[in-house]
Amino acid sequence: VSPLNSGTTNPSAGTYTVAQNSLFSITATPLTGYLFDHWTLDGSDAGNANPINVTMDANHTLHAIFQPPAGITKIYVDPPEIIDPTMLPCSSFTINITINQAADMKICQFNFTYDPNILSWVSIDILKVQNQTPSPKVISDDEAGYLWVKLTYPNPVTVATPTALVRITLHVDAVGVSDLNLTDTSITDSVGQPI
Predict the structure, then answer these.
(1) How far apart (Å, rounded) are the C-alpha atoms in residues 176 and 178?
(2) Handedness of CA 150, 156, 157, 160 (dihedral sign)
(3) What DSSP state is assigned to residue 39?
């Protein structure tokens, strides 16, 4: 199965002994965020029939190839804007840092900035993605108005729909307007390549 953690086969990946010249049927099932693309049989493209029937006239190696759906990876503040004249000092509100269309993501890092004259951060909740809690590294400077976050997932994750990575609670310290920005974003895959 390629890439790793992108799908499964039935029967599962492994070595099997079967009768000579028999047909061996294999079905590919993509995991969330992937699509089945094609098979390679002994290193050559074998099409995208699913299931595939292989005539066992010799030893064969079959790979299921999965691809993420087409799309542009996007990381953003959600909601993108909060306009609430009733939000006065001592109020709090929550935003998410959300990602969409990321395949084979191993590390995600970003710098979240805000106006420290208007807001201060209260808490940051690291959220599970595909049942995995990442190892977080968070550096905060409330006087400068930023939270730098690095999330490292135990196994690469793929998301095809908007998925919240962290939830940040902010406190309103003064009346005014503050941009909420993401800067210095970096998303890398399981082999260290940028997404």
Answers:
(1) 7
(2) positive
(3) E
